[in-house]
From TrEMBL:
The gene is PTPA. It catalyses: [protein]-peptidylproline (omega=180) = [protein]-peptidylproline (omega=0). PPIases accelerate the folding of proteins. It catalyzes the cis-trans isomerization of proline imidic peptide bonds in oligopeptides. Acts as a regulatory subunit for serine/threonine-protein phosphatase 2A (PP2A). Modulates PP2A activity or substrate specificity, probably by inducing a conformational change in the catalytic subunit, a proposed direct target of the PPIase. Can reactivate inactive phosphatase PP2A-phosphatase methylesterase complexes (PP2A(i)) in presence of ATP and Mg(2+). Belongs to the PTPA-type PPIase family. It comes from the Eukaryota. One of its GO terms (cellular component) is protein phosphatase type 2A complex. This is Serine/threonine-protein phosphatase 2A activator. It is found in: Cytoplasm; Nucleus. InterPro entries: Phstyr_phstse_ac, PTPA_C_lid, PTPA_sf. Keywords: Acetylation, ATP-binding, Cytoplasm, Isomerase, Magnesium, Metal-binding, Nucleotide-binding, Nucleus, Rotamase. It comes from Saimiri boliviensis boliviensis (Bolivian squirrel monkey). Its EC number is 5.2.1.8. Residues 1-21 are annotated as: Disordered.
Length: 281
């Protein structure tokens, strides 16, 4: 047989197509307080907090008006929600989006619903619709728009805070924009933590900074002295630097949201955010 006519061995005829992931409908796995140990050891926890911290690093020192490029995949997301070739993932990913807008029976909303939206974005990253270089757009374009919608719903329907700790909590409804918003302000040339309780400073800078936008919304929704209706935030205004504020808020988020059974009992787990223990390496 001539050299050009030689047949390749059977095992190397052609590369096998990549296996299609087995997507599943996410379900609750945290039914009792002892189950919280499974959550803290889970791949879902590691992936979720890793996603939050990656975005935290991405927006550091940047204004909401910062110019950024958005990948082609992200543009496709806006146009078609999820591209056709990822249709199998839609039922799983959609669960987190549905969970992110509050409870229609209780008409309430809180950090657990906010976490569901962050999980939705995390899943879009895991299936490749969003990419690492979209991290600024994820916070400034997508998550910030989500905040705008939720604030409108909170005002329109007078939604009850879900699991609010009242004056001793950070905020009735949100937590993540305070984390990412404080990261934006790290090393700011003149705005310090003490300035966010200054009405003039907030009014002049809220369009650029997520943290200040949150403060403005609180003052619109609540009456009375800030130190009384938002004591925890008032205390934070005494912290000397935004980097310390940011680090403290990350610790607080883990302790007061991600490690609280009343919040995590509603979190759902699937193939993208699985309950199985985190895999090393």
């Amino acid at each position: 047989m001539a050299e050009g006519e030689r047949q390749p061995p059977p095992d190397s005829l052609e590369e096998a197509p990549p296996a299609t992931p087995n997507f599943i409908i996410p379900k609750k796995e945290i039914h009792t307080v002892p189950d919280m140990g499974k959550w803290k050891r889970s791949q879902a926890y590691a992936d979720y907090i890793g996603f939050i911290l990656t975005l935290n690093e991405g927006v550091k020192g940047k204004k909401l008006t910062f110019e950024y490029k958005v990948s082609e995949e992200a543009e496709n997301l806006v146009a078609t929600v999820v591209p056709t070739h990822l249709a199998a993932a839609v039922p799983e990913v959609a669960v987190y989006l549905k969970e992110s807008v509050g409870n229609s029976t209780r008409i309430d909303y809180g950090t657990g619903h906010e976490a569901a939206f962050a999980a939705f974005l995390c899943c879009l990253c895991k299936i490749g619709v969003l990419r690492v270089d979209d991290q600024i757009a994820i916070v400034f374009k997508v998550f910030n728009r989500y905040l705008e919608v939720m604030r409108k719903l909170q005002k329109t329907y007078r939604m009850e805070p879900a699991g609010s700790q009242g004056v001793w909590g950070l905020d009735d409804f949100q937590f993540l924009p305070f984390i990412w918003g404080s990261s934006q302000l790290i090393d700011h040339p003149y705005l310090e933590p003490r300035h966010f309780v200054d009405e003039k400073a907030v009014n002049e800078n809220h369009k650029d900074y997520m943290f200040l936008e949150c403060i403005l919304f609180i003052t619109e929704m609540k009456t009375g002295p800030f130190a009384e209706h938002s004591n925890q935030l008032w205390n934070i205004s005494a912290v000397p630097s935004w980097s310390k504020v940011n680090q403290g808020l990350i610790r607080m988020y883990k302790a007061e949201c991600l490690e609280k059974f009343p919040v995590i009992q509603h979190f759902k787990f699937g193939s993208l955010l699985p309950i199985h223990p985190v895999t090393s390496g």
